[in-house]
Each structure stands twice: as structure tokens, then as C-alpha cells.
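Something for you to look into today, if you have time. Just paste the record in under my message, thanks.
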Amino acid sequence: MGRRGVNAREVIPAGVKLFSVPEGDLARHPCFRYLLGLEGFARSLRKHRNITLLGSTGSIGTSTLEVLTHLRDYFSVSSLSANGNIDLLEEQVGQFRPRSVAVLDEEKADLLRKRLGRTTEVLGGEKGLLEIAGRDDSDMVLNALVGFSGLRPTLRAIEAGKDIALANKETLVVAGEIVMEAARRHHVRLLPVDSEHSAILQCLQGEDLSAVAKLIITASGGPFLGYSTSRLAAVTVEEALNHPTWKMGAKITVDSATLMNKGLEVIEACRLFGFPPEQIDVLIHPQSIIHSFVEFTDGSVKAQLAMPDMRLPIQYALTYPDRPSAPYRKMNFTELSELTFRQPDHRNFPCLGLASRALQMGGTAPAVLNAANEEAVHMFLEGTIPFTSIPEIVSAALEHCTRQDRVDLEEIFRADTETRQAVRNLVESSSVPLHTTSVRQQASI
């Protein structure tokens, strides 16, 4: 079972503070309550922990299993899940021996059930995914699912009192306030797996949060850094998937190329740490060595540096606050020829600005942004639309979204469904490559 209601002062030795804020500033810094909750972790490696891994066959999932192999003396795998890659999932079952697995594709779940026999329980569909997310036989759930599909399992795990290691940023993008409130209500610790948010968490250790001036999230710029709009119109799927520094799944790699990924990460940072949008900046850093900065009111800046390897933030989330040794490539500063920075190109990469717009609008706008983007990226990967139509479709979707103060889960799910259908209708009705004007005229979102 996940630990509930741990008092930080009962765990952290007297005189040791990971975070400090004057009492009077607590209301002004809601992030402090979240970060103080992280102090309540008992030292992770003092007891063996059971992990449920959602999305084990994807890029983050396979990297997580590499980390768990290295840390096998401290962790066991309780459950795994996959969308439909049952061949790889079967291999993982043979290596990690989970008690149960869930396959979203029910037909493939039936096939895997026949292959595994009685050795491992196989559950199918979203019902099976939610079942393993909330089971009592794990201490932590690492959510590596892609896109909006990660929201329900995250909430189910929170309701079951599980600590969460979150790689599924869309959970916080579309329903961040709801998710963070649920985490506080159930005394759950939610740790970021994204390298940028992991870096921010590390930079905030031991700091007075009232002295934080801004968070600076870095972006590689993707494979099309410096491209003009006309050049972007001709890029191929293969080129978009050829990221210069990171090895990731297809959807997030395209999001990196459009800079939408960075826009989603700004929203995630607002929800996770409680800082307002005006205190969060984005800076292009092509080498992907500095993963984020924190600037303080006295002008000092802290940065977290590491090689671009997702296994490092995954391990930090799993073992926080410990830092066990890792067999991954270490920094060698004599081999670094340069560390360069530049401002984002908002004109040719408008997705970053669209995400900021959705954040300012609030309500269902982030859900509309996410749904339109997921559909557009899927269509680009299938060859249905050109690369430059992705931000056009997202922009059209947001134009038909009204500003709201607070929304519930039902409204978020409805906005997601309706936006996806409207985007599909729009593209199906277009007989020519999409342009901004035609999208805005035809969209009925």
C-alpha cells in the first residue's frame, strides 16, 4: 500500500531542511505545500518497493525497466501495461515476473492470455488498466502512458493512495488542478519524470521559495531549429522523428519538433510547482545538457546538468530523495565544446505561444489544446497533413474555446471527445493541404 499522511518532521532528522519558506508566505506559495509533502518520503532505499509500470513497452517504459534492472535489490515489478505490443510485453513478463499485466487492446489481451497461460494474470481494456493502477500490491505507480489516456489511471492510482512517478505530462496539462487537489486530499506524493521538471525539483532543494524569481525550462529546439516557415512546410515524417539529442517515442518527438512539448511542459510546471505563468520562461539550448534553471531574486542562478538520458530523471523519481550510483554516461566537461542558448522562434514555431494562450484561458482550453494537438500529430505521422498544419489546427480549436474559471472531469472529457471529432471532420472535409485561413473558416469546434 502507498504510505499515507507521513509527517515530514517525523522523517527528516532535526535541523535538516530540504525546503524553507517563512510561515507567512505559505499562502503565497502553494507549491511549498507540495514540495513539503515530498520531504515526507521515508528514505526510498531503506525498504523494498513494488512498482506498477503503465506503458512498459514505450520509450519511457523500456528505460524504466533498465533502471529497475540496475536497482533490482530495491524494487520489484508488480504489474505492467501495454497498448498492444504483446510480443515485447511477453518478453518483459519473462524477465520481471509481474503478478499481472494489462493490455488496452482486448483482442491482443486474449492472445497474450493464451500465450502466458496461468503464470501471469492478463487483464484487458481500460478496465484492466484502471484495475492494476489501483491494486494494493504496489507502492508506487510510474505512469509512462502517452497522451490523454494517462489521466484516468493517474487519478485511480491517487485514489488508491499510491505514490506517483509521472511521465505522462498530459495528465497535468488537461486536469492539473483536479489532479493536484486529489494528490493533496489522498496524501500522495507526485514526482516528475520529465527531465526539465526533475531538474527544477533538484534546483529547489534547500531553497526559500519566496526567493525564487523564475523557473527557466530549456528546450533543444528539435530537428528543425532555425528553419523558415517555407522550409518547414516541406519536412517529412522521417525528418521530424530524427531528434538531434534525445531518443523518444514518435508523438513526443514530433511535439519537440513543433515546440508544443515545451508548451505542455510550461503548463505542467505551473500545475506541479504552483508558480504563475509569468514566472516561467523557455530558453532554447541545443546541446540538452542543462535541463532547467532556477533564478533567484538576488540574481543567482542554479542549474541541473546531466547527459541527455531519460534513465537519470526516472531513477531520481523512483529513489527520491536518495541518489544511488548509476551505470550511465557521466558528464565530461573537457569534451563539451560549447553550451549555447537562444530565444524561441515564436513566429515559425507558434505551438509554444498557443500553449501559453490555453494556460491563460484556463478551464477546458488546455484539454482542447491537447486533444487538437494529439489528433494533428497522429495525422501528420500518417501522412494526412503537412507539418505546418499542426499549429494551424490547434489554433483553430482554441478560437472556438470559451474562457472558464473552473471545470470538472466530465467537462474535460467532453471537451476532449468533441475536439477530436471536430478536428477529424475538418481534415476529412478538406480537399487541399490545410492553411490557416481555411482551417479557421471550416472549424466547428
User: Anything to note?
Assistant: The radius of gyration is 21 Å. The first helix runs from residue 8 to 11. DSSP finds 19 helices and eleven strands in the chain. The domain at 8-193 is CATH 3.40.50.720 (Rossmann fold).
